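1st attempt posting a full record on here, be nice pls
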Amino acid sequence: MKGFSIVLMMAKKLLKLGSWPVFQSLFMVLSCLIWQSSTMLIVEGNIQIEPGVKYQTHVALIGWQEWVNNGAVAGTTGQSKQVEALRIKIYGLPGAKIEYRAHVKENGWLPWVSDGELSGTMGEKKRVEALQVRLVNNDNYGVMYQAHIQNVGWTRWYTDEEIAGTIGNKLRVEAIKIRLVKKG
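the predicted structure (as tokens):
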């Protein structure tokens, strides 16, 4: 938290000096730290956020876990706990949208949702059994994802609307990983 205070103090001084462009750059850096994005680029003097994905899972007996980024594990492994819901967001891709849906015990496939909306259930003790993810409005990136399945372990990496998990086998998703990949 001390580093955050120093950044705020520097920002106040920059504003007093009338250095708006420097303040904007500092604000972008601070925003990236808060959003936990992994990479920033400086292109022709401008700070740009490297495109990425952040996501979180709601896990039985735990609740919502912290947001994680770009291929990190959301959920648990080795604890026999089911994912009951998930939320996914992208950053650094203006105009693009990430859509996803979960296949839930007794409910089947839920409708497609996007940009941080909940897919799954809370308070019903129903396991997510599979998921699908897709990136829309962007030709330069795709999305890859995998699931850790009860009694199976990690699946292979799936892409754009493929089913990660199982349907009809009564197996729970215990964790997920998601990442964006540059095409071509």
